[in-house]
Amino acid sequence: MKTNFSSTYKFCVVIALFFSFALNVNAQYKQFRVSANGDTLNAIDKKGMKQGKWVVTVPPLRGEPGYDDEGVYKNDKKEGMWRKYTTEGDIIAIENYRFGGKDGVQQYFTFLGELEHEEEWHSYNPDAPYDTISIYGTGNNEIIDYKIVKAEQYSVPNGEWRYYGPGGAIIKVQHYDRGHLMTEDSDKPATASTTPADTAKKAPAKTQEMLDYEKKYSKKKRKEMERTGETNL
């Protein structure tokens, strides 16, 4: 009799916890689903923004194979590591996001699961007020001007892009500087370019607008703004 009471009590506790969880989730989200192991997936909050873990299934279309994409949303933006799989469960890509844009190393695989190529990206914080970008000349890597732009959500290739052949041998390397292709195949220029020293000598003087902005927001402060998204304006 004591055993039956204990079992009934435990069952009631489990049911109570389940309904408590369900009520809490309902209070947070206007739409969600629960996975087989009890995880809350594909949640949309009261403001209509995607939150938490998501699994997105994309069906085959016009000859292109379908795939599953899974990762985390934070305030309607992809954040952290996302993984992409074939419908059979084989890994296609591992992508990293920050502020909703690609950031850091991205890896892409062949249908055999071998690493095909890697990309490096940089994502800009849309909450930081401005960003200074370099303007390159046509057909070369010479910086001919600087431009201050209002930051919006975007990401650009920045760093090394490595392409692999059979057995993991590197067959090509590209170097990017904030979206601009600098060199290809490690040391072979992608286009006619000046040496770093020539580029430095030919870079134009910064405008007064740029100097005033950099005086108000030190390099350390701008890095902190990019990291936290705070502007203190």
SSE order in H/E notation?
HEEEEEEEEEEEEEEEEHHH
Beginning-to-end CA distance, first to last residue: 69 Å
Q: How many individual domains?
A: 2
Number of strands: 16
**Whole-number radius of gyration?**
25 Å
Tally of separate helices: 4
Q: Residue share in helices?
A: 10-25%
Query: Helix/strand-derived class?
Result: alpha+beta
Give the amount of beta strand, in percent: 35-45%
Q: What general outline do the C-alpha atoms trace?
A: extended
What is the residue-averaged pLDDT? 76
Query: Tell me about the biggest sheet?
Result: 14 strands, antiparallel
How would you characterize the overall build of this protein?
The structure is a single chain. The protein is α+β, with helices and mostly antiparallel strands and about 230 residues long. Helix content is about 25%, strand content about 45%. The strands form two sheets. Strands 1, 2, 3, 4, 5, 6, 7, 8, 9, 12, 13, 14, 15 and 16 form a 14-stranded antiparallel beta sheet that branches. A two-stranded antiparallel sheet has the order 10-11. A hairpin with a 2-residue loop joins strand 4 and strand 5 (about 75-85). It is extended, with a radius of gyration of 25 Å.
Topology:
Layout: H1 2-28, E1 29-34, E2 40-45, E3 50-58, E4 67-74, E5 77-86, E6 91-98, E7 101-102, E8 104-109, E9 115-123, E10 130-136, E11 143-150, E12 155-157, E13 159-164, E14 170-177, E15 180-184, E16 188-189, H2 196-202, H3 208-216, H4 219-228
Antiparallel strand pairs: 1-2, 2-3, 3-4, 4-5, 5-6, 6-7, 6-8, 8-9, 9-12, 9-13, 10-11, 13-14, 14-15, 15-16
